Structure formats: structure tokens, C-alpha cells
Task: structure prediction
Amino acid sequence: MFTSLAPTTVRLRTGLQALAGAAATPLVPADYLDLLDPLRSRTALRARIVEVRPETPGVATIVLQPGPGWQRHVPGQYLRIGVDVDGVRHWRAYSLTSRPGASDRTITITVTAIADGLVSGHLVHDARPGQLVHLEPATGEFTLPPTPPRQVLFVTAGSGLTPVLGMLRSHLDVLDDVVVVHSSPTARDVIAGDELRAMAAAGHIRLIERHTATDGRLDAAQLAGLVPDLTQRETWACGPAGLLDALEEHFAADGLLEQLHVERFRPVIIEAGDGGTVTFLGTGREVETDGATSLLDAGEDAGELMPSGCRMGICFGCVVPLRSGAVRDLRTGEVTVAAAGDDVRVQTCINTAAAACELDL
Amino acid sequence: MTALQNKPHDPIAHLSEADIEQLGRELDAIRTRVMDSRGADDAAYIRKVIEVQRSMELVSRLVLLASLFPPAWLAGTVGLSVAKILENMEIGHNVMHGQWDWMRDPKIHSTEWEWDHASPAELWKHSHNEIHHTFTNVLGRDNDLGYGIMRVDEDQRWHPVFLAQPLFNLVNMLIFEYGIAAYDLEIGKVVKGRKDRGEFRRQGRKVLAKIRRQATRDYVVHPLLSGPSALTTLAANATANVVRNVWTHSVIMCGHFPEGVETFEKTSIEGETRGEWYLRQMLGAANIDGGKLLHIMTGNLSFQVEHHLFPDMPSNRYQEISPEIQDLFERYGLNYVSGTMPEQVASAWTKVLRLSLPNELLEVLSRHDRAGTADDEAGQVTSIAAAA
Result:
């Protein structure tokens, strides 16, 4: 009975989906369902901001209510979030700081507003409950193994604490010997400082706070002094590149590199100049351009098959995705920057390379 | 009208090269200012319009499930007609122009958008954005001048077939979306052997597939879902499509066909500067006067002049820059063509009727008309229009 029922159900469902599709064309049924509940979609992952909780000056925890498509994350992982700032969608990566599987199904990220940070500034200062944001699934390898090692060391600096915060909040009951070395400008700047200190007071972790304002920058040699049993500890580190490089060097010198796990968040800094290498991802062709030749001309001269139209910036027939790099509008001088993972599409006929560019062609 | 280059009084003779370049710089400055100020309010505007349009379509179609009941038929048909007009005009046309690409929302992007229309987005973007907007009103280049089936300019050669053009225009009005699809396929070029047949077949298959999907939705799926109201729902959907055809055809006629709009010789755009291109857009389009409702229902093509100057500017900003543009027309001594919708539709239809006759005959008629009155050289075109 069940064996014949299942295919019937499947057929019925497929039939209904086809019918809904035929009734909604040229849109898809989901476009209409989005009117009722934008979080509902399992394919386009979205979330609503539930709360913006100030932490320290310039730092806030954003509590998000994701739709049902959200898959439980592993502590230490990050998500990419698409936020509309002044009407333009920007994507950024932030570590998850919440314990997975909260009863209200919320998740949190903790954001530090960096200088001139368009998205971080918006999230910390301007984001409001109710605002819709776009998500990509949680990802990242900076996590504890299923059976955590007996002795663990976390080394963090500044906002590098956030993935570790997620791990501490989730795994304290299975970790029995944890040392946390955290560097921040002052005691006041420690994200979730009270919570960490309470963990330490309760004997769950050994917390070593370093304050650069008084103690100077933390380096690898000092670390060995602060944590004498360093070589016996599996270590997770997240912070500025300088600190991570020094740690890698130190662990490598002792032949312990496999004991060290690092997470690097490199803010993408693309300096806009004149011209650059344009890479066409489809063919792998690379073309050197000056700052006066349009991407369209440069590509065509090199033998790329490029979509084109009016060649004067009005018809949008030449628009292609800019996967990374910077371009400059030859008419207005306006610079458009795309970091890896951004969804930026540019008109090739009126833009020229302002840095190394990758075009998805 | 006659191509500007062939007129006894050249309306731009008073402008020097330097004037035209200065005009271009002033327009560039307006564009830059508005484009730099695009922000959250604009994004909220287009999202709201899309939300309203989709809700209206959804509710209208639900109401039409009971279309056997006459008030439901009427309400559903009116709602669906308005929703279909909004979808084509303020949303589809403008999104496909790239007016909202700056938001970086893949759901509201010129490269992704597909509209409720017989012509697939890809094809329409080529013939509209690329050909019409680049070669606006250039005889022999801009096929929107009469769509290849009508004579709307004295400088287009007369042929006896044009005697029937008032009828062509009437039929085209009723089936406009299919007319556009045929036009975008460049059937005329195929007949003359000036278009690759393989390319035509490939595009033709896409158009047919699109038409099949559209027709299945309006004339099969929704009627069937309506059960006993099947026939009345079918009639409602057909009515809404015709209403939209008549409306969009009328709005688009108002854009370039009314008296006072200039056309240009093919050779006149050789080596055209940016300033000269702007000037051609200013002279080649006409606006429609009206209120907020008219502007939104025309997709802000009531600001056709502003749209032709800045086709990628968000449509909700045209009204804001219109006073500045009118001021430019005044300062540079140019004719800003605008009128109410009935005036402009009448003016365009008059032209279609008048130019169905050969120039020679029109000449004789106008001489006859003027006999006994004072010579009025400058106003001759207008008086012919009034006589026809």
C-alpha cells in the first residue's frame, strides 16, 4: 500500500508545483509567497533583525531570526550576511557568537564598527529590529573536533574573540582545561568581558587578559611565558595577520604547526589606481589594461567574445559580473569595488580597470 | 515633421558648438548629482511598487475565480488591467533599463528580469535599449519611427500600402504586445533578407515559447482554476491584456509621434558628440502633462524627455529633475514638447492619418486650405495637422 502511495504523492506534488508555476509565469510562485512571508523561502535564505544589543563602545551583538532554511551551525563558523546600506546590498562575513539550536531559533553575530566601515557601521549604529537581511549558510573550518582535546588554548585579539566566544558558549561543558589569552586595547574593550570573567571566576576557563594600552602588543614569545604548557595545548587563534603569522612561525619552529588552527579575516582593501590586469574567468585569459581603455575594448582586442550594445553606457547590454577588483566609470570617475563573494555587475563599455579585475565571462 | 536637417528653419541654428558642449556639461552635472543621491528611499520606492503590483495581481486573480458574478468580473478585470500596466511600465520597462541595477539586488536587476509580455526580455532589451535609445528618431536607424509598418515622417518615402496605416495602427494598438514581439524579431529585415535566418529561427523559438507560457497562464490555467467561471475568467484576462495593449500603445505614441518632435537624417549623427547626442534626445521626445497617477501608470514615460536624456536614472526621479530640464530648454531656446494625454494622442493619430497620404497630395491640400488667407510660412506644419 505504502509503496504505491509514495509515488502518487510525489506525482501529485510535482503536478501541483507545475500548475503553480504555470499560473505564476513569468514570476515563480515563491515571488508571491514572499509577499506573505519573506523568511519562508528555503532557497533564498533571509533573516530579520530581532535586536541590536550594544556590547562595548562601537561593538554590538545583532540577534537574527533566520527563516526555516537555516541549517544549524558549528560553533566557530561564520556566515555571510547581505545588508542593504543606503539602498545598496553589501555582503560581509561575521563569526556566529551564539550557541547553536537556541529554543527561539535565533542566532547572533557580534560586530565591531571599523573606521569607515560601511556595513559594520550600519549594523552597529543604524540597524533596527524588523530589518530584513540576506544570509548564506554558515561555513568555516575554525571549529573544535567532535571529540575536543583535553587541553585547549585560545589566542585572540580584538574582534578575533568572536568565533572563540561562540565555541566557549557552546562547548564549556565538554572542555575541562581551557586557557584564553585575549588582547584588547583596554579592559573596557573586551567583548562580553563580564561573561568571560564570570567563566573564569567559576573555574571554567583560565583567562589571561592583555591590554595593549598598558602592556603593548602581544607577541609569540610573550605567549610562551604566559602559557608555560603551550606545547601541550591544541591552539585556536584569531586576530590580526601579524599576530597569526608570528604564532605560525613560533609553532612551526617547535614542529607543532598541526596543533595550531588559525582563522584569518582579511578585510579586502583594494586600492583604486589606473589600469590593471583583467582576468576573464571563462577562458582564463589575462589582459593588461591602462586606465583609459574600456573593459569592453580591452576584452575584444584580446579576442574575448563580449556582450555589447550601444557602447556609450545607456543600453546595459554589456553588463557582466565583476567577481573581484575595482573599475572606474570613464564618464564620471566613479569607482566600483567588488570583493570576492560580492554580487557586483558592471557595464564594460564605460568602465575601465582601476585595479586587478576578474570578470565572469 | 521633416528631418531637422531639411527644415527651412533649423531650430538649433542659434546654438554654437560650444553652446552644445556646455549643454552637455550641464546635463552631465544633473545626472551625476541625482545618481550620487540614490539611496534607501529610492530602493524602498521600487520595492513598494513591486509589492503593490504583485498583491494587486494576486488579489485580482483570486477575485476572478468567481468571475461568473458580474461585480467580481468587473473588479477583477480592472485590478488585473492596472496590475498588468504597472508590471510592464513602471516596473518591467524601467528595471530592464538598468535603472535599479545599482541596488545590487539580483531579484530587481536588468540582467535577470523577465516581464509579463510576449517579447522575451533579452530580445526587447536589444531593440529598445540599444537600437531605439541610441539612435532615437534617426530616420533609417530608429525603427520605432513607425515600427517599420507606418510612415510617421514626411521624409519617410510614401508607398500605397501606407494608405492603410490608420488601420495598421488600430490593429497594432489592440495586439500591441504581439506587435512588439514581431518588431523585436525584426521580421521586416528577415523578409528583405537582411537578417540571418538561423538567428531568426533561434529567436523565434524563444518568442513562441514565451507566448505559449503567457497564453497558457491567461487563457488555460486561470480559467480552469475558475471552474464554472472559466469562460468569464478567460474573457477577463483577454480584456486586461487588450486594455494594457491600448494603454501602452497610446503612451508610447505620445513619446515620439506628436507634432513638434524632431527627426534626424541618418548622416547627421556621424561623429556625434555627447552634447549633440543629448540635444537629439531633447528634441526627439515629447512629455505628457498630468498628475501622480498618470505618471506612475505611464511608468514615468510621461517624462519621456527626461527618460531619453538619462535612461538609467530611477524613474521616480524624473519628475524631480523636470523643472531643471525645462529651464535648460528655455535657456538654450529649444522647444519642450508637452501636452495632456488626449492632446498628444490626438496629435500622434493625426500624424498617422495625415502621412498615410503622399507629401505631394498633402501639399495640394494645404495650398487649397490656405487659399485666401495670409501666408503663414512658419506655421505651415501645424496648419496641415489641423486640416487633416
In short: Chain A has a mean pLDDT of 93. The two ends of chain A are 52 Å apart (CA to CA). Chain A touches chain B at residues 19, 22-27, 31-32, 35, 84, 86-90, 309-310, 312-317, 319, 331-332, 342-345, 347 (CB under 8 Å). Residues 40-135 of chain A form a domain with the Elongation Factor Tu (Ef-tu); domain 3 fold (CATH 2.40.30.10).
